[in-house]
Write a structure and sequence with these properties.
Two copies of one chain form a homodimer. The first copy, chain A, has 585 residues and is of the alpha/beta class. Chain A has three domains: 50-257, no CATH class; 268-417 and 462-483, Response regulator (Rossmann fold, 3-Layer(aba) Sandwich); 501-584, Sandwich (Immunoglobulin-like). Chain A contains 13 helices and 29 strands. In chain A, the strands form seven sheets. In chain A, strands 1, 2, 3, 4, 5, 8, 9, 10, 11 and 12 form a ten-stranded mixed beta sheet that branches. A five-stranded parallel beta sheet of chain A has the order 16-15-17-18-19, sandwiched between helices. In chain A, strands 24, 25, 27, 28 and 29 form a five-stranded antiparallel beta sheet that branches. The two termini of chain A are 53 Å apart. Residues 1-57 of chain A have low confidence and may be disordered. At the A-B interface, helix 1, strand 2, strand 3, strand 4 and strand 5 of A face helix 1, strand 2, strand 3, strand 4 and strand 5 of B.
Amino acid sequence: MAVSDYLALIVMAIAAWSQYRCYFLQEELSRCSEKEELGNKVVSQSEIQEHLDDGEEDPQIVDRRLLAGGSSVWCSGSNNTDRMCQFHNLCFSQKHKEFVFLSGSKSIAFGLPENPFDPALVDLSSVPNHNTQYFGFSHLPVAALEDTNTVAVFRGKHLLMNRFNPSNIMHVFHDDLLPLFYTMLQSGLMAKGDFKPTARLVFLDGYPAGEFMDLYASLFNYRPILRDEITSDSDSADQDSLVCFEEAFVGLSNVTTWYQYGFQVPQGPVPNTLLTAREVRVFTSFVRNQMGARRCEASDDYIVLIKRESTRLILNEMDLVTLVAQGTGLRVLTAGLEDYPIKDLIELVSCSKVLIGMHGSLLILSMFLPVGSMLLELFPYAINPDYYTPYKTLVQLPGMGVAYRSWRNWSPDRSVGHPDALPAHGGIRHLSRQEQKQILTSQEVPQHLCCSNPDWLYRIYQDTAVDIPSILNLLSEGLQECQQSRTEIAPHFPVFPSKVGGIHCDRVKGLRVSWQRPWNIEYMNTNEVRYELWTQETDGDDYKAYILQLEGYTFSEGYEDSKSYRVWVRCLVGSIKGPFSSVVC
Amino acid sequence: MAVSDYLALIVMAIAAWSQYRCYFLQEELSRCSEKEELGNKVVSQSEIQEHLDDGEEDPQIVDRRLLAGGSSVWCSGSNNTDRMCQFHNLCFSQKHKEFVFLSGSKSIAFGLPENPFDPALVDLSSVPNHNTQYFGFSHLPVAALEDTNTVAVFRGKHLLMNRFNPSNIMHVFHDDLLPLFYTMLQSGLMAKGDFKPTARLVFLDGYPAGEFMDLYASLFNYRPILRDEITSDSDSADQDSLVCFEEAFVGLSNVTTWYQYGFQVPQGPVPNTLLTAREVRVFTSFVRNQMGARRCEASDDYIVLIKRESTRLILNEMDLVTLVAQGTGLRVLTAGLEDYPIKDLIELVSCSKVLIGMHGSLLILSMFLPVGSMLLELFPYAINPDYYTPYKTLVQLPGMGVAYRSWRNWSPDRSVGHPDALPAHGGIRHLSRQEQKQILTSQEVPQHLCCSNPDWLYRIYQDTAVDIPSILNLLSEGLQECQQSRTEIAPHFPVFPSKVGGIHCDRVKGLRVSWQRPWNIEYMNTNEVRYELWTQETDGDDYKAYILQLEGYTFSEGYEDSKSYRVWVRCLVGSIKGPFSSVVC
């Protein structure tokens, strides 16, 4: 990539990011007071298994001889978005506010790119190629460590990452928790049998702990370390201290992300995501297990209606609850983050028959909906449901077994906008009269980039008096569909035939080769079986190739009785190729 | 790669491999009796730390519900030679003699190539792309497991691999032990601080335990499992049993290999190997540590002469020992595998001043030679030392600090050939009279492919009466050189500048930007420091780029006082680029 190319990307990303931050500014501001309390942030002890070894709980001032051999690093992957790096003795310099690699006599480095700043070594977040998420480090000879430096080493394994937007539960699950689970599995930071995490999280994003800290902590068993805890400002600038991690894995895998937020093209599903229902279910089952959630029971015949307290309201919520209960014969529970801790919401949704809500972050809980349930997503006036599909994409992943319906308010009369609100909450008074008019009269928000399109913000923050009869229709449709839902999960990996068996050669007339079908073909549900056969003179380089339909063939021409031949055979199932077997004839 | 391409490769590799096997046939045959004793193979208990958890020591017949969720796999890398895969519940079917992936409701697969048999998923050996080293597996739905199947599961972590040639100590170190060490470090199977292995080795090569089994076992703490132990033939063919591994890492990294054996081009150094003295020293220090080896002492002033018992003899060995001792004033110890266990040889060489020997596998121990020592390699008549350089390449890796000299017998009179020996040991009586004559009269073996060139075999198996005066000269030269040897190990990774500090902007006249040198530049020993600077209108897309020599510059033209600009600066050291810092002006 030429310098000019990626610089342009950086510029775009910076612009988009600064807008994105504005979008959440309000929430951020309200939580700033937490920042001061960080040092004392207490995570419920009963929910978190602390480090097995108490000695690992806190960094220790240690003899710097521990670092004497220097740092080491191993990376795999070909660019910053798919690279994973693991370090030994990765340190953070409090004076320079940079990570440093201590070059020492035992320093090993494999897999580093030639230039780790083109544009970055590793993305700290699963959101790819975003310039606020870049990780890099500087070099320092280990001999340059002064005697007066203080050194603290966190022993054991750590996973260093950025939360992308820790105040939004949709982002928490999509960008952080699901990627964390699969990153840990892939990096050997979690036992693959019982999913027991063995690494401590380190959040480098600089955000305060946030309201979902308990969720990270209880899923991954250790209290995460926040950036503030390793970048203490209390040291004088002359006195450098190092905070080091004995083992540090850096970066989050993005193989499970299914949605992109519109930084470069309008938001939408990630093309060719590798995620299927299988990965979602393995993850949600892990989450429920870590939470000690109860099993669902037959009596769990209820609908969960996501309630919002202050914005994007359902104006006729009470009527909706009553009539949906009447119309479906199911109980309707309303729930939101104001009433329930997130863990209770997860447990509630996990056993529910239907999840209903206005388009919004809590609908991410639809990943917990059981097979045979339904998600009904409601959209305010002038918002096209086809353009905003993080939840639809999720529940429609192959094999999820969850019906999806969206309801869209087509009637401006049933909509209440808030032109006087703050711009981040859909206010438009800061715009010119003409711009305001254009927004107020448009019938659909055109597709747009993230994150501060005022047209989108105005419309998405409208309150809505929903049309209950059409919602009842959609519910009825969806409930019928989900009763029939099958959950055969097509694996996203190729399934291939085994070797052919009993390959046998007969030289009576020409060359007769026979074999048996691969032993696992009976499990492949296919009748597209063919065979690829190659022959070669044992002492020569010439070979011939054939595609055959049956488990044997006699080659009468072109083969001499006096010569010996090597024959390879493999099975083809459609375009999928099995391994070769061979025999000398 | 087209089918025809890799098939050609396979054909070549098969041909080369079958020749290679012949080369070692003699040794193999003499060890066949071991095969029967395998089940009872006892590895010295005092040297091996058994599994921490006794319950993991042996596979257990288990409830097959352990496998009910199916297998999972994660691979990274782009082809079979650089790919690493890790499995959960990887099973071996005794009936079908294939590894199987149990497709179940919890099966996860990330990073599989579209066709794992083009030509293979993973190389089991560090010797790349060799068709005897290919790993693949078949699929089986977990539901297809019959009730009558017996299932044994090895709990915990395992590393599955092929030894390439376990009867040859050069191959053991180059192909297996060194790659194992770095594969384990990279795969999280070994703590990066204290190098404590946490995985058990599984050798799929099918060779018997072999004389170096103790070495594998004591370095990696567990008794390795042999292929025979998981492919028992005692079960009836109708009754399938599965042997499964709870966690299986498959494949050996080849990043540390430095020599290729001439399968496709004549043997020689691996081009652009990533190995430096640093990786060798970290490994040998690990080996010595695991063996509990003593520290070297000042009194260790001796030469080790590698002795061969039956082939490639030094005919005047006694004179050589006496005169070298006289000429150098150092003790001369003769040692070979017949007299010493390999561990004692390692300890001996680790503290020696000089290692002398005829070209042969024990010279691999030169990796243990201390800094400031010397390797003197002797070659029989008509063998060009420049064509056979595994040991020279090793000790001349950047930073090894070991002097190298080779001595070549130029005189046919000092050479005794063995034309009547077995072909694998240099006999030529199976050849035509003319071929024999050609070999006997040639003055140098031309470069050739592996592994059964009779010219090479005849010459390399000659005994030699070495020329002691010229050897004393080489010793004197080498000892002088190695006293001066420096051991500054140039790291094989790029060292780059940190961010520029204190970037500052002044808008008094035009645009004045200043900054400080990167804080780590003082450690980089360079005076090639330049800066790359980019400016962009905050609200625009146009940017300008500059390369500057100093830590500041005033741009007087082209910048408007009314506009704000974003400025990026980074440091360039030669072609190495640091990270950007930015400021808004």
